[in-house]
């Protein structure tokens, strides 16, 4: 059937116009081609201005930070961009609330929590969460908040250091319970060598005596300058001396020597002679 050319042109124009109307009225679609759900990538932001995880609300549309998509390409030109480095903090993806805060509190490089703390294995420095380089309370690291440290460490100039004189050691302060390391006793809040009564350099017994061979001098047991029983020293209280010595007039001498007792065989060293039990020079 023959068609009027004018009618044909009119029909084409009407069809083209309807096509434009349909195209303009079609709702935006998401990456998968479906209708664009609110909060999804390249879709309208939620009513509170937020988007799904790892998305930011920019000019009312949910996009990846920096305008990149999941593959690292831009959402506008399609050209490739540098992939994100491994060192980038997760905080760079933002917290998804569209408020311009790209760094959640408590995370590395982000603000500390309100109580000046951070997530596990992080510490709060000048209001920012940083890696723990030096654990509080340990040697060479900052003291705890109450100016104390671990174990026997002491806090000096806000740093934990080894004490110059550790508690419990000789010449140092006693422990808090007035005790010291083995072999030491606490006297006047200072640890000193344990010194049992009766021993040399220690206190005399209650009756002002000491162990055998020691004298009690001014309350302290001391070795005599000339120990009893030794040659040229006083005899023992029972008037005896050490082996090979004889007690003569309260003093110990060598048997058989001049002016000492003769030996048990009543003999003396040459050329001495034994006269009435005493070794003497022979007559001229």
Automatic annotation (TrEMBL):
Compositional bias ranges of the Acidic residues kind: 81-96
Record-given protein name: Uncharacterized protein
Naturally occurring in which organism (per UniProt): Enhygromyxa salina
Domain of life: Bacteria
Chain residue ranges for the region called Disordered: 69-96
Compositionally biased tracts (Low complexity): 69-80
